[in-house]
Amino acid sequence: MPDSAILWFRQDLRLADHPALMAVAERPILPVYILEDGPWAPGGAARWWLHHSLAALGRDLAERGAPLVLLRGDPRRLLPDLAAAVGATEIHAGRRTEPAGRRCDAETHAALQAAGTRLVLHRTALLHEPHQVRTGSGTPYGVYTPFSRNVFGLLEGLAPALPAPARLSTAPGAPAGLSLDELALLPRLPEPDWAAGFAAYWQPGEAGAAARLAAFLEHGLAGYADRRNDPGAAWGTSGLSPHLHLGEISPRQVWHAAQARGGKGLETFLKELLWREFSHHLLWHRPEMPEAPLRVEFAAFPWQPDAALLRAWQRGRTGYPIIDAGMRQLWQTGWMHNRVRMITASFLVKHLLQPWQQGEAWFWDTLVDADLAANSASWQWVAGCGADAAPYFRIFNPVLQGEKFDPTGAYVRRWCPELAPLPDRFIHKPHEAPEIVLRGAGLQLGRDYPAPVVELAAGRARALAAFAALKGDAAA
Ligand SMILES: Cc1cc2nc3c(=O)[nH]c(=O)nc-3n(C[C@H](O)[C@H](O)[C@H](O)COP(=O)(O)OP(=O)(O)OC[C@H]3O[C@@H](n4cnc5c(N)ncnc54)[C@H](O)[C@@H]3O)c2cc1C
């Protein structure tokens, strides 16, 4: 009988196109998931998703004959004992880019070696290997366009996706582990069940990911280039981000399926997948990215932290409808449209002068797709301090952005229903509506909907002055 192996699931909670799983599928295996503590442990919304994703993976594995073992704690301590219990000589897992995860993997590798067990890492989450892809001069990429050009070229030879193993056999001596409920991932009393509504929007797990991809290819891909910036459009974008984050579907499956479908929209969509790759490339090479500005001069930026302003933004009560609609969509569904993520993030760091790390932390806790690489790279990009960032002085006007990308107000009406009776002309600027229009819509600003928390021209001038002060400091 061949030696047993452990398959350590991390951000690749699927059976199909899983190189680490396929490497051990012919041997008796112990599939394990370890809930780890530490910096950037999953936030609230991501924990909701993780619960349901583990439930789905557990069912799929049990059906094939190798039930999933759930554990909680430090892999450096747990895995050597587990390997000894099942007589495993190898542990296979997907490579990760998060700094704490990489540190943990290096130390787990060392701890296992002492006991004669190998930790073997595979590419399960990305299309490229961040440590292998380099610029012509041998440095990591810091700019998206040349990165994407290079990776696009490499992907011409992308191998086909792997099938899921039909049967698995379980390693003798496997411990029972914890029950899913014992992982305590869901909101619990006395905490209100803020995630109660999520299930109406999402189906976590591999089957849900496949269904979403199929529906997007059918209804969304052809119109993607035209409609991906319309936050109110059905299937304007794929909604695959939480599935991709936890690896319920691989980027290689998505890449090949989109190419097979082809047509208009394809190239734009593939480029978005490469933004995901780029974020992970950056995180791999700049592990400080989640906490510190990549442009170091921004460490001295004169932010003006203000708890009341931050709270108004978090709760969708800023008085600017596109901002409030986005923040409420986030709260109610665990997801926000990309265009609106950019507008809300810009408003927080520019008009409200709140540190980008505050916005990053809120998104971390409330997004079902919260992903350390994509979230930190995007916040730094919006704040102007990222590697390939939009210049700080380019400041989105939330009223004009709303009018441009949500011209009929369908998105705002959906998430801010109290504004629904307003005529289109004022749907993005109720504060400019004459009293008679407000009265006709049954609205009193300050009572039914907030008055603006900041005046746009003043907020913009303050942001530009802060930026000028920073540049002055840098020059001094
Ligand atoms: C401030 C801010 C924070 C963000 N935080 C996250 C996050 O925590 N997790 C996350 O997955 N994305 C994040 N994004 C990127 C982007 O908003 C989401 O990936 C996208 O909205 C997901 O929706 P979708 O699956 O319908 O995307 P689609 O348009 O269908 O794109 C397909 C896939 O490409 C990837 N992708 C698309 N755009 C980006 C991008 N700009 N950066 C990285 N990957 C991208 C995603 O995996 C996405 O699922 C953030 C963007 C901003 C501006």
UniProtKB/TrEMBL annotation:
Its cofactor is (6R)-5,10-methylene-5,6,7,8-tetrahydrofolate; FAD. Residues 3-127 form the Photolyase/cryptochrome alpha/beta domain. Keywords: Chromophore, FAD, Flavoprotein. Coiled coil: none annotated. InterPro entries: Crypto/Photolyase_FAD-like_sf, Crypto/Photolyase_N_sf, Cryptochr/Photolyase_FAD-bd, Cryptochrome/DNA_photolyase_1, DNA_photolyase_1_CS_C, DNA_photolyase_N, Rossmann-like_a/b/a_fold. The keyword Flavoprotein applies. Transmembrane segments: none annotated. The keyword Flavoprotein applies. Signal peptide: none annotated. Belongs to the DNA photolyase family. This is Deoxyribodipyrimidine photo-lyase. It comes from Roseomonas fluvialis.
